[in-house]
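Morning. Coffee machine broken again, so started the prediction first thing and wrote up yesterday's gels while waiting. Chain of 191 residues, entered below exactly as on the submission form.
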Amino acid sequence: MKAVAAVIAPMLLSVFSAVLAGPSPGPGPVPHGSPQAAADAWGSIRFLVGDWVGEGSGQPGAGRGSFSFRFALEDKVLVRRDHSEYPAGGGRPSVVHDALMIVYPEPGHRRLAAIYFDNEGHVIRYQVGTEGGGHRIAFFSEPTAGAPRFRLTYARMTDDAVDVTFEIAPPDQPDAFKQYIGGRSRRVTKN
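Came back before lunch.
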């Protein structure tokens, strides 16, 4: 796990706090492009739209960051951009981390999927699930032989506050998620 943590240490540093969620894939297929598919897909995640700031802590140390969720391409995709900074400490240099994630309805389904990219060259494909009546949104990577598994969870605390956690499961235990970093974020603008 330490080797995995060393590779992932600066990754997803704008992720903040401590609520675990067991995602559910959502109902079965609906015609892609139908109004029902679009409405069902975005309903549970719409509360994240806006600009957010927060502070968090975890294995990389305490840091500050911001992220935004904004619809693009005539509301066909939801784009998350994040930026975070961690000061030098514990023998490691300061870290600046930038990432982009595109969330989209899976063709032929009411569920969402996402693809994540960062300035370190990481690429993660996520499935998206909800829990608690849509108050928790979890992005979880599929198990892949020999690779760690990731879960990123946003838990709605109020209309303008979310707890966020980023968890990692080791390659040999793909469901044994352990919190890597987390914190609370507050919305500064709605879009």
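The beta strands are 50-58, 63-72, 77-86, 95-105, 112-118, 123-131, 136-141, 149-158, 161-169, 178-189. Going to sketch it on the whiteboard this afternoon.
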